[in-house]
Amino acid sequence: MRRLREFILRAIEEDAPFGDITSRTICGNKKVKAVIISKGNGIFCGEEVLKAFAEEFGFEILGKRDGEEIKFGDEVASIFGDCYYVLMCERTILNIISRLSGIATLTRKFVEIAKDVPIYDTRKTTPLMRYLEKYAVKVGGGYNHRMTLSEIVMIKDNHKKVAGGIKEAVDMVRKSLKHAYIEVEVENLEELREALECNVDWVLLDNMDIESLRNAIEMARGKVKIEISGGVNLENLEEIASLKPDRISVGAITKSAKPIDMSLEVVEVLET
């Protein structure tokens, strides 16, 4: 909650560094009831965000639960509070929950197609919104890959180039981090063989065509955990999932999710 509160305050400071001069002039001491209306269909995500705004600015909020389906015209939440703060926070609230709901919605589509193969996110997130966006992935039924670079060792293409190869990179990691959990990104069968010889924990089959994926999985099955990533979309997902990897990671669920448009409308004004 502390991280979320800090994020909200930074977001409000970005939008109203010296306050909302229009609302300050017009609102006075009025209180308002407002409703947030969905202008699209999907999966709602933003319950915790609304709670954090309520706590920070003294709102009373009643709304949808994370993971609930929403349709065009649905009332997502009702807000009662100080007119000035409601209107000052309006756009920031809508921007955040629209974005998170879009991620949850797209993730749910991937999850439904992949069925029993887990869908994982990547680090292709909006700077400073990673924790929220990865939370939205979970709301949509997906799973979180590493949250930061400080967690799992993941040897990617540039690491291989700098080290001089997969074996060299793995040796460097093990020399420095003796019990490291290691995943290696491979782009072809030759690299896969080298990774298997190094007895790594996971291999990530990156941007391979379907035939190469079949051959790679046949080679690696039972020897190492298998992840497929790169170029995965809603059109090719079913075929990729049929290969039964241990997981599929999809950058698009955070990078390319379309926000669910929402609006906030004042429905009652109360003098105080």
Major sheet? 6 strands, parallel
Provide the gyration radius in Å. Answer: 23 Å
Series of secondary-structure elements, N-terminal to C-terminal: HHEEHEEEHEHEHHEHEHEHEHE
Summarize the amount of helix as a percent range: 40-55%
The low-confidence parts are none
Question: How many domain units?
Answer: 2
Number of helices: 11
Beta-strand content estimate: 15-25%
Q: CA-to-CA gap between the ends?
A: 31 Å
CATH class identity of the largest domain: Alpha Beta
| Spatial order of the strands forming the largest sheet | 6-11-10-9-8-7
**What is the annotated CATH architecture of the largest domain?**
Alpha-Beta Barrel
* pLDDT averaged over residues: 96
CATH superfamily of the largest domain: Aldolase class I
Label the structural class. alpha/beta
Shape: elongated
Tally the beta strands: 12
